[in-house]
Amino acid sequence: MKISVVIPAYNEAATITPTLEAILAQTYPDFEVVVVNNASTDNTAQVVNEYANKYTNKPDSRIRLVLETKKGLLHARERGRKEARGMIVANMDADCLPEKDWLENAVKHFERAGVVAVSGPYDYYDAHPFFRASSYVMQNYIYRPVAFILQLPFIQGGAVLIGGNNLIRAEVLEKMGGYNTALVFYGEDTDTAKRVAKHGRVVFSPKISMKTSARRFKDEGTIKMTFRYLFHFFKHTFSSI
User: Fold this and answer.
1) Phi, psi for 128 (deg, rounded to 5)
2) Structural domain tally of the chain?
């Protein structure tokens, strides 16, 4: 199954090169990378093009750079979805550093009947050691059972998807009308998970871990960010149960 890895990028010139290096080092052979330049005001586009031309005089055939002039994460994800050529759309952010077997481990779940999406925990590699460890433990030992419980037949409250660490069948995204571009940021992953879960099983696996930066927590404050995430998770999950 061909996989399209979609990477939204708004002013990510300083972070996106290691991300591209990590995704192009995947052991899974059949994938493409769609970088969505989300109206950046820095030289993000130049950095991506220069990286694509690093080892050859032609852009790496696996990397495509597209432009989305409407600012917003979901506008970028939706543009990437529409540009994707794969049977599976993989979402990650421009500061993520996937392990070499990320795609290989994830795609195995789609061999099981009824599975329409796969996600896993974030590993905040540059966070304070306590926050990094506690967050990772919480995701593995709380998010996973919550994801299972939400999908029980008598609840059907959605699922759990980590925004920058998930893979979804392209046909399911098309059936549900793509991403909800009315959302700005908070709650977008919960909204997507709830809509995807209507079409089949969503798997949350600790084996599909994703290293990512804790820069947003550092900029806005850990307590404030955590509260916002939890508030919007419950808001979108239980809005219509």
Assistant:
1) -60, 140
2) 1
